[in-house]
Amino acid sequence: MKAAQKVAPAGRTSLARGFTPLEQRILLSKGLSEQQLGDLYDAGVRGKQDFQTVGDATTLAEISGLPAELAEKVMLWALGQPAAAAAENEKVVVHSADAVVCVHCGALQPKDHKSGDMCVACGKQAEPVMACFWCGGTGPGKFCRQCGAEVLPTAELELGILLKREGVAKGEIPEKLRHMTQAEKDVLWGRARRY
Ligand SMILES: [Zn+2]
Ligand SMILES: [Zn+2]
User: Fold this and answer.
1) Environment class of 66 (CB within 10 Å of its CB; exposed 0-12, middle 13-18, buried 19+)
2) Distance 139 CA to ligand 1 centre (A)
3) Tens digit of pLDDT for each residue in 161-181?
4) What pLDDT sits at residue 95?
5) Quick one: which ligand is closest to 137's CA?
6) What is the residue extent of each domain of the chain?
7) Taking burial as the number of CB atoms within 10 A of a residue's CB, which of 10, 39, 52, 174 is the most buried?
8) Residue-by-residue DSSP string for 53-70
9) Nearest alpha-carbon partner for 190 in 116, 117, 182, 179
10) Taking the mean position of all CA atoms in its chain, how far away is CA 132?
């Protein structure tokens, strides 16, 4: 806070004339010296929106010579709390493996949620509708409602269809895919494309 009160009324502050008085005050309160404010200006950072262009603290430190710690503080302010807060939220929102989150509105469904139940928040089908690799039926949930086959991740649907065509049993296909390495899957993809 002391730094903010030391803003020189004239002279050096003109170095940073690209910044509004409020921006200057904030930057000074972050611990920047007027010299560093001038360095920012020389580096071409002349307003809050220029920090958007800079993008991250490392780049800011590189172009302006600000110490990394200071650059970090400045970027945190300049890029706004929402970005930082959003990153925080992502870390916090870790649901257990079988928690169901609505595909439409993102609301977490109650523990007693059953496949096919409507979302408690928006009333739509909460789970994604998946296609069955075995019978081609579609529906929500982890198992096909028509034939009982385990539902594969969408990305592996085609591989499941291929394995079926090659004669692998219904119950073995999801298991088989789970145990495949990426290289083995790539080979399979090669085969899938030949059909
Ligand atoms: Zn919903
Ligand atoms: Zn099915």
Assistant:
1) buried
2) 17
3) 999 999 999 999 999 999 999
4) 55
5) 2
6) 2-80, 130-194
7) 174
8) HH-SHHHHHHHH---HHH
9) 182
10) 29
